[in-house]
Every structure is written in structure tokens, then in C-alpha cells.
Amino acid sequence: MRKVVLTGSSSGIGKAIAQLLEANGYYIIPFNSRLEDTQSIEKEAKEILASHDIAVLINSAGFGMFEPHEELNPSNIAKLIAVNLTAPVILSNLFLRSLKKTKGHIINITSVEATKHSKFSATYTASKAGLRDFSLSLFEEVRKSGVKVTSINPDITKTPFYDKLKFEPSDNEDTYLLPQALAKTVLEILSMDGVVTDITIRPQRLEIKKK
Questions:
Q1: CATH code for the domain defined by 3-210
Q2: Dihedrals φ, ψ of 149, to 5°?
Q3: pTM, entire model
Q4: Beta bridge partner(s), residue 105
Q5: What is the predicted pLDDT for the residue at 129?
Q6: pLDDT at 97
Q7: Domain ranges across the chain
Q8: CA distance between the termini of the chain
């Protein structure tokens, strides 16, 4: 049974990933530490590694802020970068030896914003673009060891991500993705013989709704 460490498993894309992988024989280990707390991250990772060989690390946790940059709270900026970028980089560092033993897979859920440039998204884009570039660079570093690294860059997905934002997905079904579609993509990527290093998934049309 392949063991999966998964952040963000309690809701949204992460929850859908957990449900689908469990249904297909994977053993999910939810990573529950506060991702802006490096000491907690290290402690939980060591506890997991003491009793498990990890085959897959999926960094799915994240949040967004979309405001003029000068209006953002500095502490929230630091938290966003910690959760969206620093934590996945640290977790990859902590689990990499185990993943090399199992010839495992790291999957980082980034965002379509990692591939483009939008107003009011500078900090969020920086965090997600950083994670995407980290993923692509890490693959070049570890590919000889058998470890696979994938960046998945989803567009607007109907999840609680938008609960505290000033906009949300449109009501039209062809303008957003469902978290189950992203989970299916994860399962397909894990089942492939080759390596999908980078994939962007978008709905057919672009349309949002202001709250």
C-alpha cells in the first residue's frame, strides 16, 4: 500500500484527492501542522518518518489574497508565503530521503496564476510561481534517483478557497473546475510510467462573480 502525506486534506482539492486515492488503495497520512510554523512541521514530519516509508508527498494546502499590494497586511503576506511556498519546500526537503528509497512522487498544487500575471495577485502569484519553478528545478535534481515531481496549475475551482474573497466562481458550469477533476488528474499522474512535470488545467470559459 503506497503511503501518501497530504496537506490540505480537510477541504477543497485536498479533500477530493484524499477521498479518491483512498478509494484506489492509497494510504493517506494527513499532515496537520500549522504550515507557517517550521518547528511544528519538522516535528510532525519526523514522527511520520519514524513509522512510515513515504511514497507520495502532495502539497495541496494554500490560500489567496487578491487586493492592491499596498493594502495587504504584512503579517498576512508572510503567512501566505509560508503556507503556499515555504512549507512545501521544507516538506520536500524533509521527506526526500524517504521518497528516494521508494522512488516516490512529489505533487505540488500551484495555480494558473503561476503561469500568468494578474492585477491584485502579485503576492499570491509570487508564491505559486515560486512553487512551480521549485517543482521544475527539483525534478532536474532528483530525476536520476527515480523521484518524480509534478506541478499542477489549476484555474478557478469550486471550493471553499473563495469563501473569504470578494469574488467566486460563476454559476455557469463551464467556467470552473470541480475538485474531483483535479483529484482524478492526480490519480492519473500517479499511475503513469513517465513523468508529467507540469500541467495546467482550465475550464472552457473565463467568468467570475463578484460578491
A1: 3.40.50.720
A2: -135, 130
A3: 0.96
A4: 56, 148
A5: 98
A6: 98
A7: 3-210
A8: 44
